[in-house]
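Hi everyone,

Forwarding the result from last night's run.
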Amino acid sequence: MKKFTGRWLVLRIWMLIWLTLVWILLWGNFSAANVISGLTLALIITVLLPLPPVPVEGRVHPISLAYLILRVAWSLVLSSTQIAWLAIRPTGPPITAVLRAHMNLKSDLVLALSVNIMNVIPGSIVLEIDQERRMLYVHVIDASTEQAVSKFYRQAAWVERLLIRAFERDEEWRPAANGNNGHNSNGRNGDGHNSNNDGADAEVERT
């Protein structure tokens, strides 16, 4: 028999609210009919088409999470300005490249979150994910200089570091029973981040 916890109930309620809001936005009109129909559709989706459970194996640290959000927001502003300058500067277009970054993250859920963060920051987009090796292959719009390449590696390193602080601290990690999402923490130092290459690996290809 399935055990329904308080966390499960909160997640289900949030999913119902979110799907209802999406339905209302699609119709573009807030009305009782749209709320009722959206809620009905959300119930049908969550009951008949449930998503597989995603194990939560660490703890969420609100302060670290808030800092992560602020850091990503600042990177959005800074990167947008840099991309705008690349578009209007008098010299030719920059040299692009496909680089690979190793993300020493244990959870597939947090790894997916790192991909989303890399994608929303202007100037980089993840092309491929090597789930087993925790490797991201990222297209970088500016790899003209070693300084620009190093900037990408530093970006990958702080994304990894802040995600670990927010979700995957070693002392609080509880691997799932099936063992599918638990990756070993070899290479992490006392701060919980990769001590080998600080979250990044070598360049793959320049274009």
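The chain has two domains: 6-48, 62-206.

Cheers,
N.
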